[in-house]
Amino acid sequence: MRLVENIIGAMRGKAGTPIPGGIKPPDYKQATLRSRLMPTPIPRELILPLIQHGSTRTKPLVKPGDKVLKYQTIACSEATGIVDLHAPTSGVIRAIENFAIPSPLNKESMCILLESDGFDAEIDHNAITDYCSLSYLELAKLIEEGAIFGLGGEGYLNRLKLSSGKAVKLLIINAAENEPYITADEALLREKAKLVVLGAKILQAACMAEHCVIAIDSNNTDAIEALEQTQLNCPIELIKVAPKYPTGSEKQLIQTITSKEVPSGKYPADIGILMHNVGTAYAAYQAVVEGKPCISRITTLAGPALQTPKNFETLIGTSVDYLLELCGLNQQDHTMTLMGGSLMGVKLARTDVPILKTTSCIIAASNAEFPPPALEQACIRCGFCADACPVSLLPQQLYLYAKCQYYSELISHGLNDCIECGACAYVCPSNIPLVQYYRASKEEIGNQLKNEMSSAQWKQRFQYHQYRAKKDKEASRESKKRGAVAKTDEAVQSAGSTVQNMLPTFSRESAKKEIAAAVDRVRKRKTRLIASSSDENTESSK
Amino acid sequence: MEAFIDKQLFQFVAAASIFIFLAHRLLLVRKYLRQEYLAQKSVVDQINSYLPQTQCGRCGYKGCLPYARAISRGDAINKCPPGGEPTILKLVDFVNEPGFRLNPAHGVFQPPLAAIIREDECIGCTKCIQACPLDAILGGPKLMHTVISSECTGCDLCIDPCPVDCIDLVLLPTPKPRYWLTPKIQNSRFNTLETDL
Questions:
Q1: Is the per-residue pLDDT at A72 higher than 60?
Q2: Looking at CA atoms only, how far is residue B170 from chain A in angstroms?
Q3: Distance of alpha carbon A123 from its chain centroid, rounded?
């Protein structure tokens, strides 16, 4: 009940409790909001990574040389937790090889190279008009077949979110973007508010949530206007949250709206809340109502090095280079490319990489707005980072422990709760790249855990080996003892294990006979040998 | 008559109290020994959990658990080449001994290895199977053998027994390159200040 009261309170303008800390970086959103949202022209080549969610891979269903149609399934998921891959346009599969994928290092992975034929011929897909009559299970299945990732940028899988088996009280559609450059959600809401609302309804029906709200930054006026014009007569409500970075992060938005904190190491579903991005809601609408799987997403192309920064509805697999050229890249100003926002994004090592389902933003940086990182100075313990941390951690303490690789202490200081928002590094007067320290330590801790798990496995195997050796020894000693005591055939047979049963029966007398026979044979052979050799000798002497 | 009864009673009470006293002492001693044993066992377990569990025997003991027992009785902690310096650092914290470099008499630290049998040359002698401390080699008499790579610790105990030298130790392909690297400190002035807390 308290949860519902809080929501109602928030709706009346008393927006929950603001998160502790947070920053208000300058806004660079206007440049990309000037032009309308438009689909990109179909590029000549599309690179579709088979890898999903870290290390799990999909299995390709096509061979090089195959012709595929738009929306055709070209790779299927084998494990739970990953989705199928669909062809974004019609064309010919050229290769299934290693291609560069977006990463700060030169990382390569298995990808399908699709050369488009320009016809954009679609495979048959059935549109469903009366989606209201479908049960929640059917809806969830349709959404799963639509191959929808969490399009918010972190790539949580929808199926995991939808069928977690826990009662959902509140579904939050997240349109609160606080990254200074990203406007993908705002552009989507401005152009397609009605479809997003329908998608939100579908998601609500699929997870059987009691309430559904759309959370949006209070300064996204165009999007708010568009949403209000769509007449939210349904139970879906609009909540305006104060613009403050990182309110758009999952757990932080929940805290802002409901004044409830998601416990450490748990998911929002554990406290009866689900959150989806507006892009996910739009994709759910497309998947259920139009029957089209997710093959495109809204991506912001921003940055001072672009002449016409704008939002694109891009096909998954479009090369970043291609998009940058479409926006008129100014080669002289361009210094580096960021993927995924200016604060949380990563610097791309190369730009011939594809757009993924989680790529919300590409920033072409210039020296003026993104100067090279200043020299790292010593921590002066000013405490600005602790004030800015939205999770109430102690960044300066974490920094010290990360630097001297004191991993147990890092974990007890709550490193796993760090959302890597970058607020601490933003406010740091000593220019310390704090988030990079945390990310590196998190990865190192993960590697150590993996090593520990394998060594535990080895230990178990060794213990079993020793146990087995001991048993074998005991068994052989016992059988020997019994053999000495009981000289009859029956005793040996009864004592023997299955292996010994298979051996021929053994007794003293028969053995004596056998030995005597063998000795006889050897003697005869010897005498024969001697005789023959003496013959030879005599012959040779002759 | 009364004195006689008293005397008997006195003897009985005295004997009983002595018996109870001794029994109590015995129980105490037993409890103490039990505690000692458990403490010792937990110490050994703790040390064993720091060792890399390759069971290579390069420390001179037959496996990691015997070496852990030896350390708990005061053996040196720098005899484990597969664990290398990280293992020594962990053990230093635990046994309160000064840290040493790895003892070169036992071998040098190297990245994780795994054994691979050149299967064409294998004659099926089963000698490596008997040598493997983890039962990580599959095969039968006069049949080709192979190593279960996920269980192989790269301990090299199977190399020597092989009569045809068909086992190689290869570097494990690193599963995933490091994605995030610790920032390189450009200002060398601050390098030494915080690295040893």
A1: yes
A2: 18
A3: 29
Yes or no, beta carbons of B135 and A461 under 8 Å apart: yes
On whether any CB of chain B is under 8 Å from the CB of A155, the answer is no
Cβ–Cβ below 8 Å for A400 and B197: yes
Tally of CA atoms within 13 A in the half-sphere of B42 that contains its CB: 5
Q: Is the pLDDT of residue A82 over 80?
A: no
- Tell me the CA distances in angstroms from A170 to A97, A154, A458, A502, one per residue in order: 43, 21, 46, 69
Q: Are A54 and A149 in contact (CB under 8 A)?
A: no
Give the separation between CA A223 and CA A408, rounded to whole angstroms: 46
Q: Which residues make up the CATH 3.30.70.20 domain(s) of chain B? A: 111-174
**Could you tell me which CATH number the domain at B111-174 has?**
3.30.70.20
Confidence of residue A80 (pLDDT cuts 50, 70, 90): low
pLDDT one-digit tens code per residue, A391-415: 999 999 999 999 888 888 999 999 9
Query: What domains appear along chain A, each with residue ranges and CATH number?
Result: 2-37+127-364 (3.40.50.11540), 379-485 (no CATH)
Q: Does B53 contact A at CB distance below 8 Å?
A: yes
Q: State yes or no: pLDDT of A16 exceeds 80.
A: no
- Interface residue A76 vs chain B (CB under 8 A): no
Q: Which residues of A touch B52 (CB under 8 A)?
A: 455
Q: What is the least distance, in Å, from the CA of B116 to any CA of chain A? A: 18
CA distance B10 to B16: 10
ipTM above 0.90, yes or no: no
H/E stretch holding A49 reads strand A45-49
Are the beta carbons of B134 and A462 separated by less than 8 Å?
A: yes
Note whether B45 contacts A: Cβ–Cβ < 8 A: no
Contact A252, A152 (CB under 8 A): no
User: Which of B48, B64, B135 lies nearest to residue A465, judging by beta carbons?
Assistant: B135
Q: What b/e sequence results for B129-163 when a residue is b if at least 16 CB atoms lie within 10 Å of its CB, and e otherwise?
A: bebbbbebbebeeeeebebeeebbbbbbbbeeebe
